[in-house]
């Protein structure tokens, strides 16, 4: 049983309330309770931490612990006890938008220059004009930079629960100050740091380095008063009007995150080549990713599940779209199912007109200070036709048919509950087979792709 996600400020408060003596024991206690069986009953989660010490977590409607009184312990020192702080610190960190509802009427907000925001249906809104940095934002940026610098100085072995809680506290302050990009980078650092310390198989040191670099660079520029609005970022669920859309399903992507979320994202492509998505990702175990693969799609009154949508399409009127391309499900949205298109026709076929090497040069050639734009550029899917050459372990070597360029395929997600690795091994047994792929470019490795379908 997986523990529920917990809001950053709840974890930070629990650690800050410990005495110096108990803080020294915190990392060992987290390791102990992280492997203790969790009992779930009526939506609550209980962890037996010893005699007369049972920690109970009662998540709110969104599935996460967002209030201090939702985490209790039966010991005499509660709530300032080691048991409660350790269990909360063992939980995944909740995303900042977990309880943020989709607004019925969204207004434009400054956002990073991503492909999705460039496709804003309101072309008169200037989202890239300089914005004044307030004193509270400068203060929050300085605090976040200091916490991140302390983590960097400590290194992975010494960056335990206490330095992490200080980073989470600073991230919460950044959120209150409206520094969305910095807060997101901080949560990525904590998540990647935990994965590194736990030696998870799917952890990549490059992810931690990139997240920490993004956090330090963003906060130092903010602290200096840089007026670039992309440094502020935007709330992840700031939906904006999208007008009428005709989108076609391309594939489903199972999601099992290190922060305790699971579900599915169905990727859709419009006739003009813009990517959109319909997601069902919530707090849960890996089993939820399997169940959500056939869950109903909540866009308008369309009676489709994610499997049907991945092979069909939607005609949407009154669409709402988030900055990262997610389709909203507000009351004003209307959607009608459409017949799907094969990958040999329509917008997918148009993607194949550009060699993968050309797309890689286009998307990965950015300035060193543009890490967020680099991430956004590689988030979008690409397509290519390849011939299988050979396999080695979890990797697969293929040749792109258009250019003849060798490409390495690696698992989109190495989580043992997902089939990405097994699928590549199956394909490795068929040298000479020609297949069409849809996936993502890997920004950290040359000529490397992570296929999804």
3D architecture notes:
The chain has 453 residues and is of the alpha+beta class. 36% of the residues lie in helices and 22% in strands. The protein is built from 16 helices and 14 strands. The protein has helices spanning 8-16, 20-24, 26-34, 82-90, 115-118, 135-158, 161-176, 180-198, 205-223, 229-232, 286-292, 306-311, 346-351, 356-364, 371-379, 420-428; strands at residues 38-41, 44-48, 54-57, 71-73, 240-256, 261-270, 275-283, 313-321, 334-338, 382-392, 395-400, 406-409, 434-441, 448-451. A 5-stranded antiparallel sheet has the order 7-6-5-8-9. Helix 8 (180-198) packs antiparallel against helix 9. It starts with 7 loop residues before the first helix and ends with a strand.
Number of helices: 16
Mean pLDDT: 84
Class of secondary structure makeup: alpha+beta
Radius of gyration: 23 Å
Major sheet: 5 strands, antiparallel
**Which band does the percent of strand residues land in?**
15-25%
Shape: globular
Q: Share of helix among residues?
A: 25-40%
Q: What distance separates the N and C termini?
A: 30 Å
Strand order of the largest sheet: 7-6-5-8-9
Low-confidence stretches: 99-127, 367-372
Q: List SSEs in N-to-C order.
A: HHHEEEEHHHHHHHEEEHHEEHHHEEEHEE
Number of strands: 14
């Amino acid at each position: 049983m997986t523990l529920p996600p917990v809001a950053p400020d709840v974890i930070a408060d629990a650690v800050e309330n410990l005495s110096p003596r108990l803080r020294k024991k915190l990392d060992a206690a987290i390791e102990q309770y992280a492997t203790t069986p969790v009992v779930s009953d009526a939506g609550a989660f209980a962890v037996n931490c010893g005699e007369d010490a049972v920690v109970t977590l009662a998540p709110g409607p969104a599935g996460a612990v967002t209030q201090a009184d939702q985490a209790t312990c039966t010991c005499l020192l509660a709530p300032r006890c080691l048991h409660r702080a350790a269990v909360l610190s063992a939980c995944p960190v909740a995303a900042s938008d977990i309880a943020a509802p989709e607004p019925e009427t969204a207004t434009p907000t400054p956002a990073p220059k991503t492909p999705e925001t460039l496709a804003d249906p309101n072309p008169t809104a200037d989202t890239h004009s300089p914005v004044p940095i307030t004193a509270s934002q400068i203060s929050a940026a300085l605090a976040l930079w200091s916490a991140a610098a302390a983590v960097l100085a400590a290194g992975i072995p010494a960056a335990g629960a206490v330095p992490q809680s200080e980073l989470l506290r600073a991230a919460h302050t950044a959120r209150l100050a409206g520094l969305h990009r910095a807060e997101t980078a901080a949560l990525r650092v904590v998540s990647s740091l935990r994965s590194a310390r736990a030696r998870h198989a799917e952890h990549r040191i490059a992810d931690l380095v990139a997240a920490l670099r993004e956090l330090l660079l963003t906060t130092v520029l903010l602290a200096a008063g840089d007026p670039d609005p992309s440094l502020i970022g935007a709330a992840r669920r700031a939906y904006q009007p999208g007008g009428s859309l005709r989108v076609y399903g391309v594939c489903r992507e199972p999601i099992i995150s290190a922060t305790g979320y699971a579900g599915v994202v169905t990727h859709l492509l419009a006739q003009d080549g813009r990517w959109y998505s319909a997601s069902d990702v919530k707090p849960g175990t890996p089993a939820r990713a399997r169940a959500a693969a056939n869950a109903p799609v909540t866009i308008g009154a369309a009676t489709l599940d994610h499997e049907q949508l991945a092979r069909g399409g939607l005609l949407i009127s009154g669409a709402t779209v988030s900055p990262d391309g997610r389709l909203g499900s507000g009351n004003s949205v209307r959607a009608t199912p459409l017949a799907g298109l094969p990958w040999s026709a329509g917008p997918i076929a148009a993607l194949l007109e550009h060699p993968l090497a050309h797309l890689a040069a286009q998307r990965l050639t950015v300035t060193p200070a543009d890490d967020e734009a680099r991430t956004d550029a590689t988030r979008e899917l690409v397509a290519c036709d390849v011939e299988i050459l050979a396999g080695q372990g979890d990797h697969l070597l293929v040749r792109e048919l258009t250019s003849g360029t060798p490409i390495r395929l690696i698992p989109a997600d190495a989580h043992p509950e997902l089939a990405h690795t097994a699928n590549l091994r199956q394909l490795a047994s068929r040298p000479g087979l020609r297949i069409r792929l849809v996936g993502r470019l890997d920004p950290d490795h040359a000529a490397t792709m992570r296929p999804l379908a």
